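Please decode residue identities from the backbone states below.
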């Protein structure tokens, strides 16, 4: 009996010692939580992550007094974070738990506010104040330093971009179109997502084409068209780009494509629709396509009957098709006189007023058989693009 009793006692003691050892390894973390206003914060989420081995513990929340406690943590090293609305507002790193009483770790959302302040300062000035920096955690400082380097690189890139763009504008003003092309091409390489860069590059190429002949002119013109396409790909709702692209297409003798672009420009900018067709007419006149020009001016008038210059140019294109009868009288196509009179009604002192009056005098009187066409260059001024 005695032997049995000793065996039983030994087993019982062994069991108690094992259970006691397991319980002694369980620890806890507790603390108080303050909100951005410095007052106890209710319902804040506490995230506990083990550092010395994989493990994440969630579920702890602060009570109405801003207090939290998490029991049942194995002895180890942890990172304790305060999470508010999905944002980490405070973190305490390398927390070592111990046997006995819970480890006190207080958390303060104002530290997260300090991080946000630091981010705002960094974004606006590229630096943060010493006071703010002192309130940042190691992770926050690393994140700030990384952001600062990115901002510095972006600022350097922006400076180079602005320098190249400004150099291009200066070259354009000096009519150094090759220099403008080179500068805007560099700007496009620095940032290919700037539509204004592609627009200026296109304009420079088109201007450069006008100073060249043959294959060199064609090459510059085609590169200008490509640049306009890239500008429009980035900003398809810009009526001005569609208009300028159309004018370049006319120079490339791609009239149907130009008309489609002008129709798009008119659709995007109804109040300015008339000027887009006037510009088309001006280019067509200067390239010797009188009939097509007349249709463009007519369209401009249909869109805006008070467009005086369009009325005048339409009258001129009609007059170019006038005939002379057996008596030596000029017979203009229908609408010629009306268009010229409308111009004088709208702009009695306009730049084309004297020319319009002279043509009307010719049309309402008789002329000799040696009559010369009043639309020759010496009697009229080619229309200017608007």
């Amino acid at each position: 009996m005695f032997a049995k009793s000793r065996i039983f006692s030994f087993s019982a003691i062994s069991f108690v010692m094992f259970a006691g050892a397991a319980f002694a390894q369980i620890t806890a973390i507790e603390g108080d939580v303050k909100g951005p206003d410095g007052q106890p914060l209710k319902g804040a989420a506490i995230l506990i992550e083990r550092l010395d081995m994989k493990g994440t513990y969630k579920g702890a929340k602060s009570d109405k007094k801003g207090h939290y406690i998490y029991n049942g943590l194995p002895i180890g090293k942890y990172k304790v974070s305060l999470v508010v609305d999905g944002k980490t507002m405070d973190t305490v790193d390398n927390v070592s738990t111990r046997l006995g009483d819970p480890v006190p770790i207080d958390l303060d959302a104002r530290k997260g506010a300090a991080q946000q302040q630091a981010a705002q300062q960094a974004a606006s000035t590229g630096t943060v104040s010493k006071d703010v920096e002192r309130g940042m955690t190691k992770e926050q400082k690393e994140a700030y330093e990384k952001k600062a380097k990115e901002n510095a690189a972006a600022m350097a890139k922006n400076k180079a971009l602005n320098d190249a763009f400004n150099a291009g504008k200066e070259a354009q003003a000096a009519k150094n179109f090759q220099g403008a092309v080179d500068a805007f091409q560099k700007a496009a390489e620095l940032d290919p997502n700037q539509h204004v860069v592609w627009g200026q590059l296109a304009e420079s190429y088109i201007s450069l084409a006008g100073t060249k002949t043959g294959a060199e002119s064609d090459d510059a013109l085609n590169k200008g068209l490509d640049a306009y396409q890239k500008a429009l790909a980035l900003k398809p709702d810009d009526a001005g780009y569609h208009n300028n692209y159309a004018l370049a297409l006319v120079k490339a003798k791609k009239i149907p494509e130009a008309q489609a672009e002008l129709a798009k420009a008119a659709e995007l900018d109804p109040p300015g629709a008339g000027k887009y067709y006037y510009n088309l007419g001006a280019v067509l006149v200067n390239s010797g396509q009188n009939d097509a020009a007349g249709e463009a001016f007519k369209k401009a008038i249909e869109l805006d009957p008070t467009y005086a210059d369009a009325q005048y140019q339409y009258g001129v294109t009609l007059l170019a098709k006038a005939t002379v009868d057996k008596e030596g009288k000029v017979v203009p196509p229908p609408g010629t006189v009306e268009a010229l009179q409308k111009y004088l009604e709208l702009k009695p002192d306009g730049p084309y007023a004297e020319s319009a009056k002279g043509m009307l005098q010719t049309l309402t009187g008789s002329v000799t058989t040696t009559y010369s066409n009043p639309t020759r260059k010496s009697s009229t001024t080619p229309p200017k693009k608007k």
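Observation: The mean pLDDT is 82.
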